[in-house]
Design a protein that fits this description.
The C terminus is likely disordered. The chain is elongated and about 105 Å long. It is built from 7 helices and 5 strands. The protein is an alpha+beta fold and 246 residues long. Strands 1, 2, 3, 4 and 5 form a 5-stranded antiparallel beta sheet that branches. Helix content is 46%, strand content 18%. The longest helix is centred in the first third of the chain and has 50 residues.
Length: 246
């Protein structure tokens, strides 16, 4: 009996607490291992993102060149001169108007066709299975409609209207307009108008001189007035600093 009591007392005072401590330590180890695994996954994800940070910085730089945080008109004029020289046209006039606040795009929901209600007293038509139909024009338009970005607001995004007048051959002017829309700075051409330039009469070349005939036919000069918009995405800190207090 004494031996049994001694063994029980030894279990209660010595072995059981040690087993409890070991159990708690094992539970703590599992928690730590779980946390370490989660941390390793986060580190791996960060490493993967950091591996492409150079590419992301390049994209950001290109976007900042296309839509800078200031009007940067001198840099834009330099770009215009370069495009004009490339396509052999002459810039004769440039004007820049006051900036305009961005108007958020409102996309109207597509109109739903109203179901015709049966006339009172008229027999109800027998229901027929609804056939599968192709999307309507309204549904296709809704699917292709632009989605407004909530980060672009009237307080941080502005457009600057510009007007350009260029002269040159008609083909070169069209090439200039295309180059204008594909340049480093984002440019939205809204309208352009072209008029012929009167030139003094030129003696017709000999009928056998094909090169001279082709040259004469492609020498029509035009003057084109182009209306366009360039854009500015203001820095949030700058926009906040320049916004007057209410």
């Amino acid at each position: 009996m004494l031996i049994a009591a001694t063994a029980l007392l030894g279990w209660v005072l010595g072995i059981s607490p040690k087993l409890s401590e070991a159990s708690l330590a094992d539970a703590d180890r599992v928690v730590v291992e779980t946390q370490n695994s989660a941390s390793e996954l986060k580190v791996a994800a960060l490493k993967e993102k950091f591996a492409s940070i150079g590419e992301l910085k390049g994209e950001l730089s290109a976007l900042r060149s296309a839509v800078p945080d200031a009007a940067e008109i001198p840099a834009f004029l330099t770009q215009l001169d370069s495009i004009a020289q490339q396509h052999q046209v002459t810039l004769t006039d440039i004007s820049v108007n006051d900036a305009q606040a961005y108007a958020p795009l409102v996309v109207a929901p597509p109109a739903l066709a109203a179901e015709a209600a049966p006339t009172e007293g008229a027999a109800s038509p027998t229901p027929t299975p609804t056939p599968t139909t192709a999307p309507t024009a309204a549904e296709e338009a809704a699917a292709l409609a632009p989605v407004p970005n909530e980060l672009i607001t009237a307080s941080n995004f502005v457009s600057v209207p510009v007007s350009l007048t260029v002269s040159g051959s008609y083909g070169n002017v069209l090439d200039f307009i295309e180059g204008l829309q594909k340049g480093t700075r984002l440019v939205m051409v809204t309208t352009f108008a072209t008029s012929m330039v009167e030139s003094p009469p030129i003696a017709a070349p000999a009928a056998t001189d094909k090169t001279a005939i082709d040259t004469l036919g492609g020498s029509d000069q035009v003057t084109t007035t182009i209306s366009a918009l360039i854009y500015v995405l203001l820095d949030p800190n700058t926009a906040a600093a320049t916004t007057p207090a209410g």
